[in-house]
Amino acid sequence: MPKLHISMTPVNDPTGYLFSLSKCLAAVLYASPWAERADDSIAASGFAFRIWIDRNSLCPSATSIWSFASQKSWVENGGFTCGYVERLWGQDALEEERRLAALAAVRTSIDHGVGAVAWDISGCEWGVISGYDDETETLYTLKITGEEGTLPYGKLGNLEIPILSVLTVAGSTDKTDEQIYRDTKAMAAAHLRGEEWCDNAKGLEAFDALIHCVKTLPEDAAWNVEYALGTYGALRWYAQDYFRKCSEAGYGDGELYALYRRSYIEWDLALRALREGSFADAAVREKIAFHLQQAEQAETAALAGLEI
Q: Any residues with CB less than 8 A from the CB of 71 and at least 6 apart, and which?
């Protein structure tokens, strides 16, 4: 009955809305042999630079509509080897086969002292699988809130949104920090240009969609706005922190750090404006929109440096 001690506590979540997959990945790495790379994984996987926005209602599900299978190669960009198992819509015939494969991957990973990241553990968000018990066919889980729980084997991939997505970190490679830096920049640039698949607004185009929603949605959409600002603002903290460390190490571009530092500050100011005011106030909406425009300018300027 192996069970690992994994906690969300070491993961910096500056807004309380850090993207759940990134938060869970970092938590798993903090409790692994690669703890020193936990924070950088959020940038090196590209998530620190991504933004997806539902153009019509700011539905939070926009953060979870992208090519799930890409997470394997995205996380591996940070110098890891990963295992990945999924079952998506229209693949019901594969349910048992993929669930058993996922359970086998979870057992192997936990036996090696590394937790797994799985979809829907936290209620339509990613969570952590920290242990298993074959006798009772029970998984031990950790939600992004820090709440521990259990899950029957048969419910893996069959929760509120019945799709399966399980990611494990199996090892590390000899990829250098400089190589990771170059490939991370290329990945970030591709996303900002809109080259990564998503049905919703993505990359730089997502700023206009978010600003439009801020200005036009009804008052009862305040939480949707807070979710978006909190999610992408927290990710920008990791973007600027990563570029700061790369610059200090001597191979990074200090200008990229400055631009993403500016972007993070503007996202943070937008969130503060919402939390300290009322979404019913037109002046508050204009203030949020202004800070988002400033963040967009910073990230637009950063694109040139990312493409070098």
A: 21, 45, 84, 165, 167
268/245 Cα distance (integer angstroms): 21
Q: What is the pLDDT of residue 92?
A: 86
Each residue's pLDDT tens digit, 191-202? 999 999 999 999
Q: Which two tokens stand for residue 160?
A: 């509120």
Instruction: State the SS3 of the chain.
Output: CCECCCCCCCCCCCCCCCCHHHHHHHHHHHCCCCHHHHHHHHHHCCHHHCCEECCCCCCHHHHHCCCCCHHHHHHHCCCEEEEEEEECCCCHHHHHHHHHHHHHHHHHHHHCCCCEEECCCCCCCCEEEEEEECCCCEEEEECCCCCEEEEEHHHCCCCCCCCEEEEEEEEECCCCHHHHHHHHHHHHHHHHCCCCCCCCEECCHHHHHHHHHHHHCCHHHHHHHHHHHHHHHHHHHHHHHHHHHHHHHCCCCHHHHHHHHHHHHHHHHHHHHHHHCCCCCHHHHHHHHHHHHHHHHHHHHHHHHHCC
